[in-house]
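Protocol step 4 of 5: obtain the predicted structure for the target chain.
Materials: sequence only (see below). No template structures provided, no constraints applied. The aim of this step is simply to have a reference model before the mutagenesis design in step 5. Sequence pasted as it appears in the construct record:
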Amino acid sequence: MKKNGFFTLMLHAHLPFINHPDFKQYMEERWLFEAITETYIPFLMVFKNLESKKIFFRITMSITPPLMEMLVNKDLQEKYLNYLDSSIALAKKEIEKTKDENEKKLKMAKYYYEKLNEIKKFYLKCNGNILSEFASFQEKGYLEIITCNATHGFLPLMLRYPEAVKAQIEIGVQTYENYMGKKPRGTWLAECAYVPGVDKYLSEAGLKFFFVDTHGLIYGDPTPKYGVYEPVITPEGVFVLARDPESSQQVWSAEVGYPGDPAYREFYKDVGFERDNEYISPYIDPSGIRCNTGIKYYRITGKNVSIDDKDYYDIDKAKEVVKIHAKDFAHKKKEQILRLSKEMGDVSPNIVAPFDAELYGHWWYEGPMFIEALFEELASIPEVIPATPPEVFEQMDAVQVVVPNSSTWGANGYNEVWLNGKNDWIYRHLDEMTERMIRLATIHKNTSDPNIEAALNQMARELLLAQSSDWAFIITTGTTVEYAENRTKFFLNNFMNIEKEVNDDNIDKKYIEKLNWLDAIFPKIDFRVFAKH
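Step 4 output (structure tokens):
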């Protein structure tokens, strides 16, 4: 009987496409800048550290098409450097400010200043092309970078329009190939949302594997022999991996998860909300709306401690706790594999742990440190073998054919986050746009008129951007609702304006060019992907 098993860490990196080149600053663009500073570059630094220490590590990572497009966008790259310079200036100002306030705050102000300068040095060294840095770790075999559907569209609600599903999947593959230089082997379905039938389109696009939530496999037909601990394959020939509930609970449970430790940094207490307006105004949105700056001086302290009673954060004490948690998690994976091995005989269990990438660093500041410490610990535990999905498939002697059940990883496990009384108004518009796009794409699929091609390509972009699951999600969660609603209406309005010009045979080239500048995504798109064949 085998006494070892595989551990597949899956990080889903995604942000909605937010690009406002007509504004010097736009508050929602900060979502990208925060993620680069707190998650993406720290990841790359961790990978370099592990490589230099010759620590064996394997990570599967989806980088979605919208995120890829934003990372290579020159305007956003320039804005990011401005954001970084502003953050460095604030950190330097905080060093002077905290000298008269508190030694613990002063220590952290100095830490932030040094860390931000390291981030800037790294960014400049790679000429802002951090996407190529991720690609280099894939070429070395450390990463398995996978794709996602084009704009993170929620596929279960599109299935009655095969052309729309195919467009989302095929453009996701095309974007990956455009920036990674080769075809992806796997995909992350937006919101981990699966419904029977989607795998047919994945297979047609050449994709070999995808992920589902735990219940997507547990309730599969037939019930998989080894539950979520061995990949299965669909009748369409696509492998399926499912989330391990134990790993999810250990890392991200609100009750017992590591990120809630009292020593870790408190996310919701930031100087952007604490300093007086005159002091902080140069470092927040020009409108005066308060926002996070990334400079935070307090720790979680305790579950029932009010936001005003938080104690001071100490990065060195947090690093000590990171090592304890990484060791704990690594040994729990060992115990889990030994336990599963007794039940699975000669079959090596595979523990799949998928998370939003932005959990590590942005929400859980110590998250990248945890990943580094985890692989250092796993290096001394032979029972746990870090592996990417293709590496797991290669060692399988047989595979069970299963049709997974409809599922998502949203609240309550199905579709209600993306379809409810708050956001259901979106879908009648999306369906109408989809039907009109299919009709015009089919009518004009043989055109050689460059004006019609440009117009229909832009219509396709507007539809895809409107289909992003992020807008419905934001409306449900009640965060930046006005922005999400305005984005949906903006893309819808653009679509209808172009459609009228095409139908009237009166295409305004300058208008199309302006929209292409505003919504600069998928430069190689071909509207014919929506055409009936």
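Step 4 remarks: Residues 447 and 453 are 7 Å apart (CA to CA). Residues 315-344 form the longest helix (30 residues).
Proceed to step 5.
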